[in-house]
Design a protein that fits this description.
Helix content: 25-40%
Distance between the termini: 42 Å
Number of domains: 1
Radius of gyration: 15 Å
Structural class: alpha/beta
CATH class: Alpha Beta
């Protein structure tokens, strides 16, 4: 049964994400963008074998601090989004939001629904 469960992860600086361990999330502390990029690609492309023997993505959702997400390239997002999972969700850091996270979510919803429902 455990192999049928998806995981959640968060990527950011240690002081920003440490509290998420209490929620049972995989916490991935990084010191700079290069580390964040390496880790998100590794997690996003990570596979696990389910109980039925099929291979599937290990993570359902990966949260990443906006300051790192906004520096990912279109090619990075193409690699990450080849399959439906994982969903990569940018979240604001300690300094507040830059608007990037909301813009990404808006774009994902627009692609899924076919129109801009946020207005």
């Amino acid at each position: 049964m455990e192999n049928d469960l998806y995981k959640l992860a968060i990527i950011g600086t240690k002081d920003q994400i440490l509290g998420f361990t209490a929620l049972g999330m995989m916490v991935v502390a990084v010191n700079n963008f290069e580390e964040a990029r390496e880790k998100i690609l590794k997690l996003a492309l990570s596979n696990v074998e389910g109980n039925g023997g099929e291979t599937r993505r290990e993570y359902a959702i990966i949260f990443i601090m906006e300051e790192y997400a906004e520096r990912l390239t279109k090619d990075d997002y193409k690699k990450i989004n080849k399959e439906a999972l994982p969903a990569v969700i940018p979240i604001p850091g300690i300094k507040g939001t830059s608007g990037h996270g909301l813009a990404r979510v808006k774009k994902m919803v627009e692609q899924a629904v076919g129109s801009d429902i946020f207005g």
